[in-house]
Amino acid sequence: MVGLCNPHQNRPLICKLYPFLPKVDNKGGILDFFSATFFDLFYDKSSHPCTLVAQHEDEVKARLKNSLEPLLKDPLYIFAFRACELLAVYLKNSLKKEFGSYLINKINDENHAKFWQKAEMLLLLRKAWRNQEFYNEICDIHDEIAQIWGEFLPFK
To answer: Average of pLDDT values for 77-83?
Structure first.
């Protein structure tokens, strides 16, 4: 399972993690995984266009568990992964509220274009998470991590 970047070792972090990000606790323990890109959130395993998800999920997750270990000793990465997870939850909930599901294969074919249009607008305008509830939750995540690791952001 090697990507097309050349030289391969110089690819960006997201490519090293793709197709999953870790769902972590505040101490950096891996609880599970979720889709590494917003657009991958909209596919379940059976309809996912990426063969790494559709055919090699367990192998990829096992490899990621080992390679993520050094990152998960840094509260900034823990916060980043928790923040990404929260963003994904808000995006999925916004789409589910309007379409009854956030999975494209569960949406009627005639609504696919409308679904993609709505997803893009939610992302571009940050509408899914531009609210007080999200702000409170992201601040709580920061505070919980800082309680364990000490302050880790240069601003607050």
So the answer is: 97
Q: What does each C-alpha distance from 155 to 3, 127, 142, 152 come to in angstroms?
A: 36, 24, 11, 9
Report how far residue 125's alpha carbon sits from residue 5's, in angstroms, rounded to the nearest whole number: 31
Residue 9 binned pLDDT confidence (cut-offs 50, 70, 90) = low
Report the distance separating Cα 91 and Cα 97, nearest Å.
10
pTM for this prediction: 0.87
Dihedral sign of CA atoms 31, 42, 13, 125 in order: negative
Question: What is the Cα–Cα distance from 28 to 12, expressed in whole angstroms?
Answer: 21
Phi, psi of 102 (to 5 degrees): -105, 0
Q: Count how many Cα atoms sit within 13 Å of the Cα of residue 25 in the half-sphere of its side chain.
A: 5
Name the residue ranges covered by the structural domains of the chain.
13-149
